[in-house]
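User: Please predict the structure of the protein below. I'd like the answer in structure-token form so I can feed it into my own downstream comparison script.

Assistant: Understood. Taking the following sequence of 117 residues as input:
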Amino acid sequence: MTNNNLQIEHAFDSADFVLKTQQQIAKDFRQHGYHFEIDFEIVAFEIDVLKKTVHNKLAEIIEKAPSKWLPLMYSIDISEQKYVQFFSATTPDWLTEFTDILIKREAQKVFFRQNLK
């Protein structure tokens, strides 16, 4: 694990960092017409609640509007190769694993924004 990844992991100990990550997630999803409950952008969630909330929203997109998936992944900056790797996986937990990757990518954006000022 790189030093930055370790720092990002530790940053999740801060409610402020978690909330900013949630706000970044909401912003990217909103660009594609998807919205979270209002408290998602106001109250920092526990990490397991955050994961479940994002997982459920991703499952909703796959079920109702799969054509919006790739543009969303592009906005979040998750490569098509990584997405295809998970989407074609035969394990039933692929979406759970992918949710973790998405949250980490959004957290990286927040982390670098805070530390490159």
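That's the full token string. The radius of gyration is 14 Å.
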